[in-house]
Design brief:
The chain has about 170 residues and is an all-alpha fold. It has one domain (about 1-155). The chain is about 75% helix and about 0% strand. It is built from 6 helices and 2 strands. The chain has a two-stranded antiparallel sheet. Strand 1 and strand 2 (about 125) form a beta hairpin. The longest helix is centred in the first third of the chain and has 36 residues, at about 1-35. The radius of gyration is 20 Å and the shape is elongated. The protein starts with a helix and ends in a 15-residue tail after the last helix. The mean pLDDT is about 90.
Length: about 170
Amino acid sequence: MRAAIQRLSRALAIVGAGLVLLTMLLISADVIMRTVTGGAVRGALEYTEIMMVGFLFLALAWAQASGAQINVVVILELLPERLASTARAVGLLVVLFLLAMMIWKTGESAWRSFMAAEFRYGIAQVAVWPARVAITIGLFAWLLQLLPEFWDEVRGAAGRAEMPPRPNLPGP
């Protein structure tokens, strides 16, 4: 199960990295076109905004898996291991609940956006629903990534398992 979650997180991070590359190419093409012709790439800003949402949210699970997020553990380091595991498990439970609520609401928003064929109007008419779907997928993958960590902390709090070391995963 953990391996499947890791593969999903990695795959989404690769898609996100591809969106970063496309964004860089689009912005570069826009700058070159403005310099050479004085005109712009039609819809560059609108497409860039949509892709930024995608690469941000699709990389959340991989950031969690690789430990790239910021952790403040000053107090937890002072506690005995079982008590620290209990505190981390409670914190993760709160995060899992909040993520589940966010997934529900963003999923509803993505569905409504898709059904209404919502567009962002500017120089170009760009569909909004792909960004909304990316938010939901990214949050869901993050939730999946947190589940094994939560289980490990629950087991550590119960004194049933030694805590596995956090993986130091290479980038996508």
